[in-house]
Amino acid sequence: MALTTNKSILDWIDEKVELVKPDKVVWIDGSEEQLDALRKEAVETGEMIKLNEEKLPGCYLHRTQPNDVARVEDRTFICSKKEEDAGPTNHWCDPDEMYKKLYDIARDSYKGRTMYVIPFSMGPIGSPLAKVGVELTDSIYVVLNMAIMTRVGKAVMDVLGDSNDWVRGFHAKCDVDPEKRYICQFPEDNAIISVNSAYGGNVLLGKKCFALRIASYQGWKEGWMAEHMLILGLQNPKGEVKYIAAAFPSACGKTNLAMLIPPKYLRDKGYKIWTVGDDISWMRIGKDGRLYAINPENGFFGVAPGTNEKSNFNALESTKKGTIFTNVLHNLDDNTVWWEGLNKDLPTNAIDWKGQPWDASKFVKADKSTYGAHPNSRFTAPAKNCPCISPEFDKGEGVPISAIVFGGRRAKCAPLVYQSKSWENGVFVGSAMASETTAAAAGAVGVVRRDPMAMLPFCGYHMGDYFQHWLDMGKKLGDKAPKIFNVNWFRTDDEGNFIWPGFGDNMRVLNWIIDRCEGKADATETAIGYVPKPEDIDLTDLDMDIDTLKDILTVDKDTWTKEAAEIEEHYKKFGDRLPQEIRNQLETLKANLEK
Ligand code: GTP
Ligand code: SPV
Ligand code: MN
User: Fold this and answer.
1) Residue 253: nearest ligand to its CA?
2) Ramachandran category for residue 268: left, alpha or beta (phi over 0 → left; psi -120 to 50 → alpha)
3) Is 501 in the pocket of ligand 1 (CB under 6 A)?
4) Which amino acid residue places its CA nearest to atom 3 of ligand 2?
5) Ligand 2: which residue has its CA nearest to atom 4?
6) Dihedral over alpha carbons 514, 516, 522, 528 (to 10 degrees)
7) Which of 115, 287, 405, 441 is the 20 to 30 A CA-CA neighbour of 453?
8) Virtual CA dihedral for 537, 539, 544, 550, nearest 10 degrees?
9) 255 lines ligand 1 (CB under 6 A)
10) Distance CA 163, CA 312 (A)
11) 306 Cβ below 6 A of ligand 1
């Protein structure tokens, strides 16, 4: 039975039913009873494997097709009416042409199948910062993941009422044919269509497609921001909590930083991190003029490889019940899961992510083709499982942000941390961000590319306008604007080893950041911004000498002169939609480097 009388929704569903011809239509009401019946059905058809109920209660394993394991950026389109509005960083297609192409692909594709209608809320239901979407899908895997990642069910429809302000998400699995795979956003129509994939970010339409690509466009029009950012609360020994939002590209450490456990000496003093979000942040200016953030999601779609008790205890804990694992290794000995970096006990009786028997004796660390889990294998875990989930997580008002942090993987160049000189300078830092590519998207891994604000694959409109929107938000925030920083955990030595220990030890850098926000820490002014005095990064209990620290804090003039030239090159594609202010910032950097 339909969960709403909203005509705009019912008409849209009728139209899609007519197109894809499902055998039946099922509304997802969010009840455990219904979800459990779907889990059983998925186990019966082999779509999911039920894992050891004692060790991993309520957990399942799913394998996608080997050709369908990551986001596909070259098949992702922003279909605005005018090509120039999608900008130079997005693939574009005329909306009429694309609708036709997609409808031709999806036509009749639900025959013999069920259409699931998922009403979902991004953000706590009814929060002034939340937004509603409806996803149609023919995949139970999508339904069960959406039920973890978002708030689903009738309450969402009740809050929406008769309003037309909802996002249309239409997914059809079709034949999972990579040649006919398209992930399309229609920002002017509040619509998303995804065909021929059944993998995570391509098909959980509330996530990247809505909460970033469509929402970034909505935020631009409505005066708020949708960003690829984690949100954390840093609690000091006095019990005060300060909030930080941080944008790192895909698989560059957001989940890890968001769930960080401080080093022992800091825990003993009373420091603690609370997780508000690990991937997406929606931010609005509050009544007091400060910037407030909510996490629109309700779960974590986290990278499995590398996650272990030491690197990310809280993420691992989050995956111990009610979790769906995608493309990890299946350990047949005890019907559990395993991935590279979980522990040193390589399973000897196991099935790899492709569904083949796995030979642990052939495992070679340097050769990813020998891995049991795909490098972009993931867990979908309910946020409420996380031991350090923030008490603010479920509240609709959001948390006030003190600092915004940008970062990426840079073997050389970017120092461990620096503070920008102003909001405008910080926007410049974000616009010039670069990072080595990862397995989160199909294509080459380890290539440095510019990824402004970690939004390159996710900005739903012209990136030059997006930079201008950031500048405009800064003007509105004035002296209440968060301070902007940049971090790099990934500087390497001559042998290619990471110099900075990272993970929990990143707390040492977060403390400097908060101290700077409160005017408590000193800094050295350099050409690119304010860098910590080495003695202000606390190295207690760390096997690192101050000279090594000095080394990763250095701003090398020659390297940065080359960097400035590359940034200039990167800006060329934005033409006259690159804000003059950003151009001025680059000129200032160049002049500083010549001093
Ligand atoms: P998406 O979900 O793709 O947006 O990624 P994310 O930014 O949440 O990345 P995540 O935290 O899952 O980290 C991905 C990879 O980076 C994992 O393999 C981690 O082990 C590694 N990583 C995270 N933090 C650090 C760090 O501080 N130092 C080092 N060297 N590696 C890290
Ligand atoms: C990312 O790639 O940034 C992710 C995973 O968070 S996905 O949802 O697949 O986009
Ligand atoms: Mn992400």
Assistant:
1) 1
2) alpha
3) no
4) 250
5) 250
6) 120
7) 287
8) 20
9) yes
10) 42
11) yes
Q: Is the CB of 457 under 6 A from ligand 2?
A: no
Residues 6+ apart with CB under 8 A from 339: 304, 305, 307, 328, 329, 372, 373, 377
Decide: pTM greater than 0.70. yes
Predicted pLDDT of residue 1 = 84
Residue 491 has pLDDT above 90, yes or no: yes
When pLDDT is averaged across residues 475-494 and rounded to a whole number, the result is 97
Q: Is the dihedral of CA 193, 196, 200, 204 positive or negative?
A: positive
Distance of CA 514 to the CA centre of its chain: 23
Q: Based on the residue annotation, tell me whether 459 is a catalytic residue of this protein.
A: no
State both tokens at 331.
């350990």
302 lines ligand 1 (CB under 6 A): yes
As a whole number of angstroms, the distance between CA 257 and CA 243 comes to 13
**Ligand whose nearest atom lies closest to the CA of 197:** 2
Q: How confident is the model at residue 224 (pLDDT cuts 50, 70, 90)?
A: very high
Which atom, in ligand 2's list, is nearest to the CA of 249?
Answer: 3
- Whose structure tokens read 């050891």? 52
Q: Which atom of ligand 1 is nearest to the CA of 312?
A: 20
Burial class (CB in 10 A: 0-12, 13-18, 19+), 396: middle
| Helix (H) or strand (E) run with residue 382 in it | strand 378-382
Using most ligand atoms within 8 A of CB, pick from 71, 76, 183, 327 the residue to mutate for ligand 2.
Answer: 71
Instruction: Tell whether ligand 1 has an atom less than 6 A from the beta carbon of residue 248.
Output: yes
DSSP, residue by residue, 244-284? EEEE--TTSSHHHHHT----HHHHHHT-EEEEEESS-EEEE
Residues, CB within 5 angstroms of ligand 3 (ion): 250, 279
**What DSSP letter does each residue of 418-436 carry, written as one string?**
EE-SSHHHHHHHHHT-EEE
Instruction: Please name the residue that has the structure tokens 């930079």.
Output: 467
279 lines ligand 2 (CB under 6 A): yes
- For the CA of 258, the closest atom of ligand 1 is 11
Number of C-beta neighbours around residue 384 at 10 A: 12
Q: pLDDT tens digits for 509-546? A: 999 999 999 999 999 999 999 999 999 999 999 999 99
List 59, 184, 252, 413, catalytic entry:
252
For the chain, what is the largest distance between any 2 Cα atoms, rounded to a whole number of angstroms? 71
Q: What mean pLDDT do residues 421-446 have? A: 95
pLDDT digits over 25-49, tens only? 999 999 999 999 999 999 999 999 9
